[in-house]
Amino acid sequence: MPFLTDHSMNRSIALLALLASLPLRLLPAQVTDSSPFRQLTLPTPTDTRTGAGRPGPKYWQQRVDYTIRATLDPETDSLRGVETIHYQNRSPDPLLYLWMHLEQNICAPGSETAQLDQPPLVFLGSVFDFSCEGFDGGLSLDSLTAQGHPLAHTVYGTIMRVDLDRPLGPGQAIDLVVGWRFKVPPYGAGRMGHDGPLYELGQWYPRMAVYDDIRGWNQEPYIGAGEFYLEYGSFNVAITLPARFIVAGTGVLTNPLAVLTSTERARLRAARGSDTALAVITREEAGDPTRTRPVTGGTLTWRFHADSVRDFAFAAAPNFAWDASGWDGILVQTFYRPNADLWREANKMVREGLRYYSQQWYHYPYPQMSSIEGPIEGMEYPMMTFDPTGPARIDLQWVLAHELGHQWVPMVVGSNERLYPWMDEGFNTFIDLANAARYFAGTPYGDTIEVHPLHLYADHAIPGQEQPLITRPVESRDLFWTGYQKPALMMQQLRYEVLGRDRFDAAFREYLRTWAFKHPTPADFFRIMRDESGMDLDWFWREWVYSTARLDQAVDSVVVHGDSLSEIFLSNRGQMVMPTVLGLELEDPDGSVRTGFIELPVDMWNLGPHFTYRYRGSAKLRRVTVDPHDEFPDINRANNSWSR
Q: Is this model's pTM higher than 0.70 or not?
């Protein structure tokens, strides 16, 4: 430090004394941007994904084509197969290794699911046990080769790393040949299984994990609650089993002459042009191979082809009744056991759902749709769903239409179900509600089903317990709410209260069209909805997706100024901002009373949590109510009204 003389020291002391005598002035406080309208932090746009929420000029995704030969042995409940996987690397990256899913290993005794032994999830009256209920199973890998040479590989539960002899460069392809087998569990994590001779097979073959531009390899393990994220491609599948079985599969049956009778083929041709269900196999014929099978002994091989799909499933039983109809050139098929009486209406329920979703949102792009009655509570695959018998008509319609709705999300619009169930289960529940209301229009159920998520709010949006929608499904304590009902409520609020039906519908249709057969992320969805609608919605997504913000809008007071002006003082007492609807009860000079409504946009909260609405008119205000029709998820309606 510098040397101080006595003189300079005295001057310093005097200066300090002077400073101490001056009024204390604090530095300005550092203020962070806490506005509910602040910009949402999203990934930086690139050449693969634009700031407008669309695929960029360099967007890419991998393609995977499968050729599978499989044999189902009902005597031992076993399935074995050999598949050739043609994997095309369309990325700009050389790949040193590949990742695959071996999802049947969820049934292995030492699987992560078996170790966790988590209790089943309860969705209202349905119970989903994402385990194999103690079944001693798992997949046995018999061979894994490329160009005739074995490939080094390591299995980690339900995923497998495959090390390549040389990097797979951009634009290159590789053919993997995989041999495998497993024993079919009676109950396979709620996705597949068998009930006696009825088999519903999903997650039944080794398949490729997704490599994308966002996260690289997506190799999250399959432990139940999280579903699937898969690449698109084609399938050529041959399934051999005893001749007495009827088989339904993803795609188009390519050898009907070999596996169907001439009567069944004629009935199918007629059904394709019929808007009512025709029996391909009647309930009386079901189970009688002399009436339903071209041969009664030995085995038959059923062959299916599907393109632009991300998965393949099939079902088989010797006693299927089989109904079919057509809509706009699409074959609608329902397969069920003869004692499933409610299923006599199932074909109509599916066809009407397919019609509604196609006309309202995006035209169904595949040649057929099959719904299968069986032991699985509800599961979706391309062109196929597994559905329960149904305890009541409304329950059957809901599950058939819900699993059908998954053809749009995520079978066509391929979001990542392992991370973002709100983008498939939630979007699907949203479109299902309107479809159910339409199907049962004029009934108490049909006239109230669309408000179901709002009515569930108080029971599920519990402070300290509720989780944000962005929560991974395996971490969600109330998946029924975070994955299904709350995102459906979110979409309803956006459609009816924020954007309006026409503005929302046009934007959501564009999202479905733009990302059909591609892999959108949440940021892509947020951006395209903003870009199409013309409204900045960052505030909306922050509250609904990334937080558990709660809405509490209130009428604080009303001040009347003379005969023509009243000031209505409103406040936003919660963490969520939303538009507001004011219901005004007015008394005209002649004494008559009428009601009016004022719609205020969310921008009313731009300057903070207080807003003054100035009502001008000769009529006297008798009553003011926020949200007079109870359409918002307001947590305290006691402060919503003012009366003179």
A: yes
